[in-house]
Amino acid sequence: MPRPVQYNTNSKVKLVDLPESVMGEGFMATKFEKAITLARANSLWPLPFATSCCGIEFMATMGANYDLARFGSERMGFTPRQCDMLLVAGTIAKKMAPILRQVYLQMAEPRWVIAIGACACTGGIFDSYSVLQGIDQVIPVDVYVPGCPPRPEGILEGVLRLQELVENESLRRRNGDEYKQLMTSYGIQ
């Protein structure tokens, strides 16, 4: 039942009380969290880490025919401190693994990672001592995009999956024990 309208005696502004169903426990917090996650999901700033043929497909994804900008990722950043979505496309040699990890650690928090192509996901056809057999050995991966190389449609699908993940992620997830254990398992504090 709505409460009666109240008037502020110092001015002529009418203060209206909201019904209990609207003012229920956590109303403002949940709506605010939904607004934040929606904004995060639709304004991901990508940082490309492209090393081989998957990088060419990523360039095609940014072009006019596929236009990744339609999904809020038009601001391509080439400095990790200004980006929150790392796109690893191509073969990662074991000598490059520490650099990839350093780039990941320099990114703004919260940060997300997409592994593009068979080489970034599993090492691809390069089953040798010098190639990292999946970047998830060095940094946590949120979305895997398979293919050798994947088509631009696959990369777009990966970005859409990441947007869905970000939109449904709680703001408190990064402070939870499960996330801290994940970071500890990668040696990240």
UniProtKB/TrEMBL annotation:
EC number from the UniProt entry: 7.1.1.-
One term of GO molecular function: NADH dehydrogenase (quinone) (non-electrogenic) activity
UniProt membrane topology term: Peripheral membrane protein
Pfam family, one: Oxidored_q6
Domain NADH:ubiquinone oxidoreductase-like 20kDa subunit: residue ranges: 53-161
Keyword Nucleus set for record: no
Annotated signal sequence range: none
Catalytic EC class: translocase
Major subcellular site: membrane
GO biological process, one term: electron transport coupled proton transport
Binding site for [4Fe-4S] cluster: 53-54, 119, 148
UniProt keyword Glycosyltransferase, yes or no: no
Cofactor(s) it depends on: [4Fe-4S] cluster
Cell compartments where the protein resides: Cell membrane
One cellular-component annotation, GO: respiratory chain complex I
Record key words, sorted: 4Fe-4S, Cell membrane, Iron, Iron-sulfur, Membrane, Metal-binding, NAD, Quinone, Translocase, Transport
Catalysis performed (reactions): a quinone + NADH + 5 H(+)(in) = a quinol + NAD(+) + 4 H(+)(out)
Cofactor details (free text): Binds 1 [4Fe-4S] cluster.
PANTHER family: NADH DEHYDROGENASE, NADH DEHYDROGENASE [UBIQUINONE] IRON-SULFUR PROTEIN 7, MITOCHONDRIAL
Function: NDH-1 shuttles electrons from NADH, via FMN and iron-sulfur (Fe-S) centers, to quinones in the respiratory chain. The immediate electron acceptor for the enzyme in this species is believed to be a menaquinone. Couples the redox reaction to proton translocation (for every two electrons transferred, four hydrogen ions are translocated across the cytoplasmic membrane), and thus conserves the redox energy in a proton gradient.
NCBIfam families per record: nuoB_fam (TIGR01957), PRK06411.1 (NF005012), PRK14820.1 (NF011395)
Assigned protein family: Belongs to the complex I 20 kDa subunit family.
Cross-referenced HAMAP family: NDH1_NuoB
Subunit description: NDH-1 is composed of 14 different subunits. Subunits NuoB, C, D, E, F, and G constitute the peripheral sector of the complex.
Protein name: NADH-quinone oxidoreductase subunit B
Taxonomic source organism: Taibaiella soli
Designated gene of the protein: nuoB
